[in-house]
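Q: Focus on the shape:
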Amino acid sequence: MTTTAQTIVLVHGAYADSSSWNGSIDALREAGHRVVAVANPLRGLESDGDYLRSVLEGIEGPIVVAGHSYGGAVMSHAADGNTNVTALVYVASFLAEVGESLLELVEKFPGAQLGGAAVATPYRSADGTTQTELTIDPARFPDLFGADVDRAVAERMAVTQRPFALAAFTAPATRAAWRSIESWVLLAAQDLAIPAELSRFMAERADAHLIEVDASHAVSVSQPGAVTDIILEAARATAPAEG
């Protein structure tokens, strides 16, 4: 009996882009999986989730979805009800309950410092209204977002960071796919965006498989091997059998 290789869908979080998964992509492909790194719009939890949902609906066969940071909240929305999704992997990420915002979660336990370095900027949305988006002060980004990332790399990440709409941070979740899909959580012990205590609380609430590593919030960049390992573990554990 053999198992079916899944499509691995990678969803980046706020202040980042798909290149944050570069350290894992080759290894995931070498393990026999198709890999899709999605460009998360970062404009609103509901709209970002709907966009990812449409991407998932266009993929045939079994899927493992991995989300970093805010990307976890987006995949919790998008994967809900999709019977092709066999596993969810939350990498230094949010597992929000229905009705719960990410702002509520980061205020639940002490230790989150990223918000204190956020710079708010107005922008005009598609409907013509003025909204607010956030970036992290580039001077503070390396220490707060990726303290264990090579300094030159972290400084480039600060320059290329993608703004995150404030509305996505304050909107209540409307779906929680982790309630029906087997989930894994990678806890980053030195995370200053999603503190270890919060990550552990969310993992236990979701009855998720929990793995802890000594890493910053940017664990997909600083420790791509650990990220690859947990994604492959989830893929192996949930791969449908053939024959």
Notes: The mean pLDDT is 96.
